[in-house]
Amino acid sequence: MTTQALNSNTPGALWLSVNPSFRRFEQQLLGPLNCDRIVDHWGYSQTPDEPSDLEVALILLHDYLKSCDRPLHLIGHGTSGLVGLLYARRFPQRVKSLTLLAVGIQATWDWKAHYYKQLNLLPCSRTRVLAQMIHNLFGRQSHHCLAGLLELLERDLTESLSLHSLLHQFNLPADDVPVPLLVCGGQADPIVDLEQIQSWYSWLKQGDRVWLCPNGQHFFHATHPQITAAEIIDFWQEIDVRQLFPAEMQTA
Question: 3 vs 55, 58, 60, 204, 237, CA distance in Å?
Fold first, then answer.
């Protein structure tokens, strides 16, 4: 496996990525976020011979965050967000806040779990099911774009960390999050749907937020990067104010 962090300056936030093939989607959001503060990129990838093991990713993430001189805002989409969630529960003192993109209350549920469920249910080939997944993930596409996205999903199935397979889909019990939390979802996401996102309300603390991207699908952070970044930056700035003026915020 490999793990890497890209920016040399001390970051204020850290983007988590266990899906190397989705890098171009991440960049759409990282651009506007970097206008507010330095956002480093932590990437994890594994070889085809390695088992998918969240514990390895968590150990490597901890190795990186131990080298930082302050807690960071963590942000991740899908399974990458799940890694941030598990880390924040284990080492809350190293996390300034956690932003989850397309991570429902059943936090392990991602596009791969949906894909394997469909593959089990439908009498279709792998390629046919993946083509249907493209419609669910990205909406209607031209034939040219369809071929490229099909290749991208094929790569993600083989290259990225996943808890799921054709024989087993992993579940994680719902629990609280001991750090400031922002949960973002796509209003039109059929993978992590409204019920999955809105179920987080039962676990929110004072100052935590749930936000839905209007008309956003599963990769809403790539198709609607400006409004997604604006919501995240506003959340970060509120946390900064709370830390600077804790007494005033408690009486507000």
Answer: 13, 11, 7, 31, 29
